[in-house]
Design a protein that fits this description.
Helices cover about 70% and strands about 0% of the residues of chain A. Chain A is mainly α. The longest helix of chain A has 25 residues. Chain A is elongated and about 55 Å long. The radius of gyration of chain B is 35 Å and the shape is elongated. Chain B is mainly alpha-helical. Among the domains of chain B are: about 190 residues, no CATH class; about 70 residues, no CATH class. In chain B, helix 4 packs antiparallel against helix 5 and helix 16 runs antiparallel to helix 21. Chain B is about 75% helix and about 0% strand. In chain B, strands 1-2 form a two-stranded antiparallel sheet. The two termini of chain B are about 60 Å apart. The longest helix of chain B is centred in the N-terminal third of the chain and has 32 residues. Classes of the chains: A mainly alpha (about 140), B mainly alpha (about 775). Chains A and B meet through helix 2, helix 4 and helix 5 of A and helix 28, helix 31 and helix 32 of B.
């Protein structure tokens, strides 16, 4: 299945969609969005790219094994829960920076947790998509 | 002072971790260093012996799970002290003996490591001050025992024996945990120090009997009581130092320890009396009877250990002060002579190359020190004055004679068991060394001091206790008896009790034992029971059950796992529908005050689109059309989310729908042409299943909206989102902060599902199942 329109469009769309997914992730705490939907957008972007250029090319573009992405996502989420333990607080207590960071406002472990969800969801969807497209 | 307790328990575990490395880098020094730890611990324990014997227990406590009343606490009283001294004392001998026994075996480091870990676990169990702490260490001893029995893991017999031991004691351990939890619930505390004072409450409670039965199951399996006795003789597949340490002197006595420990809480009732005396008596007769028909030295000793454990259970069942004293004297005395005999058996095996008593004889000339050790130990086992075994047997008889109920029966059992024990003692300690020279002649080589000294020391200790029983009784036996009875009683041991019926019984026992020994060869030749185990009895049952288990599970699996997706779906849907319907009917009933359907034209239109899409998906004969129709349903639902103000949900739904359609399109061209295979009847069945899940979901939704939600939860989240969660998007704040643990669970499920899908997709070539 080769479509010239899709193949051309996706070259522009891919970075835009990835940027959009980051936007969704970062603003999720205050406006509609979040890690889950952000991860899905990442998966959709790469799925379209893979549809246009084939599975090998898609994997090359992602640069990282999706299974590894799932593992990293889970570990990142777990890490955000473990960090408060160092301060003697219960597992998964939210920690916040006292100063607002540029762009994202207050930074804290919930954002890290959401990042884990983002990576895991993207990895899981891409894992299935790549394997289905494999010939 | 109390911090010493934790050091005593933990040092063994640390040493266990270090031992393999120590043996690897300093093989010459490791064998000399390792015995120092138990020796140091033994000395440590002796320094506090005075204080503990005077009746003030040492207590150490660390909070562990305070909300459940579980703490890591240690408690050293007279009973614990007696056991801990045995564990470290005999541990010292075993660690001295092991390097010599194993020679240049490269696995020596591993063996020593596990033995050290076992010693630490054993100390933990006997010093534990909390039921859960006790249980954890109890199970650790079982795991160490598994590793040590299966040490020669290349031998099938060793693996089988190890598995048997851990299955039997492990199942008992589970029962024990349940029993402990019941005990904790009844008395309201898991702390031993508090529990020991609450015996009356426990005994009067309706759950007393179940708790007792569960605790007894744990104790009886660990201490190899009938009908769980069979694992102990099988465990002789372990190297001899292990058998001497775990399976005669210490670990198998844990069940006895537990019975003694909980005696003030659970003891003194009729159920206790009957269970313990019956089981103990049965075990005593069985063990003693089977000991004398074996030819393998280790088997003789193992079965006589079973008999000794039966004796101890019997004595604890009787429950009188005299019986408790007899038990607490017999326990260390047995540990001393039995470890001496086991270690000599290992030396014999090492020097002469066989353990078969029909081939052994006249070894006293070539290994005189081993012969001395085994001979002394055997005399103690037979109950000859002036050895400790004589005093123990006198007390045993006296306790049985003076029992109120069943006095004649228990005395007869004890005498019969002791007669057979005398025979077994002669078989193990006399025949190989002083019997007539073997034919064909053996060519034993002399063994060095590290093999006979560890056997001689406990044998000499038995002699010392026999000669000076008063000190031993006052310092070690009396405090232990006080722990069992709950109040201190004077214990005055003496070698000579005067001429009384008990002395005559002792003499008759010795004479009968000698007679049976003389008649043994012609008798056993006619007996049907020989060296073959597992032909009948409890072990046969174990084997049958072990065979049945995989067959049963494969039958169940084959039935449930048909490999057809539609049956899995039907099972899931069927179970969900029936459970939901059951709950609906039983609790709230059907919704009554339904809200009047209202809404604008656009809402009705959306609903119509969803319905049309669903109908289309079921009737179309084109796959692509079905996928598109399903997509319509999904987008329609997302539209509803937008209409009712849930943009987060809608956005996610749109993405999911899009991705699902992409996935569908990807697999679509791989599927065969759409053909109608199912009969009208099965389609009708599918329709019913689909309608049932749809209907039940509709009922649920109606029920949910007919009852207004309590507003406080919603308001709390809305109010707290910004101040506590630093976010204005409540949904997201709930997901990643307020209820982040749920989310963590969900994404873990997602990751596991991803792995499952990955496995299925990778396996589609038909490799595997």
């Amino acid at each position: 299945m080769h479509s010239l329109i899709l193949a051309t469009a996706i070259r522009l769309l891919l970075p835009l969609m990835l940027l959009f997914s980051l936007f969704l992730l970062l603003r999720g705490h205050n406006e509609p969005g979040g890690g889950f939907v952000g991860g899905l957008v990442v998966a959709a972007a790469f799925a379209l790219y893979t549809l246009a250029h084939g599975e090998q090319e898609g994997r090359r573009m992602l640069r990282i094994d999706p299974l590894r992405l799932v593992a990293i996502g889970l570990l990142v989420a777990l890490l955000s829960g473990l960090l408060p333990l160092l301060g003697g607080l219960p597992f998964l207590t939210a920690l916040w920076s006292s100063l607002p960071a540029p762009v994202i406002g207050h930074a804290g472990t919930p954002l890290l947790f959401d990042l884990g969800v983002y990576l895991l969801v993207a990895g899981m969807a891409l894992l299935i998509i790549f394997n289905l497209m494999e010939e | 002072m109390n911090d010493m307790l934790i050091a005593i328990v933990l040092s063994g575990f640390l040493a266990a971790l270090a031992a393999p490395a120590l043996y690897h880098f300093f093989p010459r020094w490791a064998g000399r260093l390792c015995p120092l730890l138990p020796l140091a611990l033994f000395a440590c324990l002796l320094t506090v012996a005075g204080q503990v014997s005077a009746g003030t227990p040492l207590i150490f406590s660390l909070p562990w799970i305070p909300s459940l009343g579980i703490s890591f606490s240690l408690y050293l009283d007279g009973l614990g002290l007696l056991f801990a001294l045995l564990v470290t004392g005999i541990g010292f001998l075993v660690f001295l003996y092991t390097p010599a026994y194993m020679g240049n075996d490269v696995r020596l480091g591993r063996l020593t490591g596990w033995l050290l870990a076992f010693m630490a676990a054993m100390l933990g169990t006997t010093l534990a001050g909390n039921l859960i702490t006790l249980f954890v260490f109890w199970e650790l001893t079982g795991i160490c025992s598994y590793m040590l029995i299966g040490f020669d893991h290349e031998q099938e017999e060793a693996r089988r024996a190890a598995l048997q031991a851990i299955l039997v004691t492990g199942i008992g351990g589970l029962a024990l945990l349940a029993g402990f939890i019941l005990l904790g619930n009844i008395s309201g505390t898991m702390e031993l120090a508090e529990l020991l004072g609450g015996g009356d409450i426990v005994r009067a409670h309706p759950l007393y009997l179940p708790a007792l039965m569960l605790v007894l199951a744990g104790a009886f399996t660990k201490s190899a009581q009938f009908p769980y006795h069979f694992w102990l003789p099988s465990a002789m597949a372990a190297p001899t130092p292990v058998s001497a340490y775990l399976h005669s002197a210490t670990m198998v006595k844990l069940g006895i320890y537990l019975l003694a420990r909980l005696s003030p809480v659970l003891g003194g009732t009729e159920a206790w009396f009957f269970c313990l005396t019956l089981t103990g008596g049965m075990t005593l007769l069985l063990g003693a009877g089977l000991a004398i028909v074996r030819n393998d030295l280790k088997q003789i000793l193992a079965w006589s250990t079973v008999a000794a454990l039966g004796t101890l259970t019997l004595l604890l069942g009787l429950g009188s002060p005299l019986a408790a004293t007899a038990a607490m004297l017999f326990l260390p005395v047995h540990a001393l002579y039995k470890s001496a005999l086991f270690l000599s058996a290992g030396a014999v095996d090492h020097g002469a190359g066989t353990r078969d008593i029909s081939r052994l004889g006249g070894l006293a000339r070539s290994m005189p020190w081993v012969a001395a050790a085994a001979g002394l130990a055997a005399l103690s086992m037979a109950g000859m004055p002036p050895l400790a075994g004589f005093i123990a047997k006198e007390l045993l008889y006296e306790a049985n004679v003076q029992t109120q109920v069943w006095s004649t029966a228990v005395t007869a059992i004890a005498v019969l068991g002791s007669v057979l024990t005398v025979t077994a003692a002669l078989l193990a300690g006399y025949l190989p060394f002083f019997g007539k020279r073997a034919d064909p002649p053996l060519h034993p080589h002399p063994v060095d001091a590290r093999l006979w000294l560890p056997a001689l020391l406990p044998a000499l200790a038995g002699l010392l206790i026999g000669l000076f029983p008063g000190y031993f009784g006052r310092w070690l036996v009396a405090p232990a008896v006080a722990s069992i009875l709950g109040n201190p009683i004077p214990v005055e041991l003496a070698l000579w009790h005067g001429i009384n019926p008990v002395l005559w019984l002792s003499l008759a026992t010795l004479a009968s034992g000698l007679c049976i020994f003389a008649l043994r060869s012609p008798l056993t030749a006619r007996l049907p029971i020989r060296e073959r185990d597992g032909v009948w009895g409890a072990e046969r049952l174990y084997n049958v059950l072990l065979d049945l288990l995989p067959r049963f599970s494969s039958a169940v699996t084959n039935r449930l796992q048909s490999g057809r997706l539609r049956y899995y779906l039907m099972t899931v849907v069927g179970v969900t529908v029936s459970l939901l319907a059951y709950t609906l009917i039983n609790t709230s009933g059907l919704p009554s005050n339904l809200p009047r359907p209202d809404g604008g034209l656009h809402e009705w239109l959306t609903a119509f689109v969803i319905l049309a899409g669903a109908l289309m998906a079921t009737v179309t004969s084109s796959r692509l059309a079905a996928v598109a129709a399903l997509g319509t349903v999904g987008y329609g639902v997302a539209l509803i989310y937008i209409l009712f103000g849930a943009p987060d949900l809608a956005m996610t739904q749109f993405c999911i729908e899009t991705l699902s359609i992409i996935l569908f399109v990807l697999v679509l061209h791989k599927l065969p042409r759409f053909t109608q295979f199912s009969s009208p009847l099965s389609r009708l069945r599918d329709l019913l299943v689909a309608l049932s899940i749809g209907g039940i979901m509709m009922l649920l939704v109606l029920l949910a909206i007919s009852q207004p939600l309590p507003p406080h939860l919603k308001n709390w989240f809305l109010e707290q989102s910004l101040p506590a969660g630093h976010g204005r998007n409540v949904v997201n704040v709930i997901l990643v902060d307020f209820r982040a643990l749920d989310t963590l669970g969900e994404i873990t499920v997602l990751a596991v599902a991803a792995l499952g899908v990955y496995g299925l997709l990778k396996n589609r070539d038909g490799k595997g199942t």
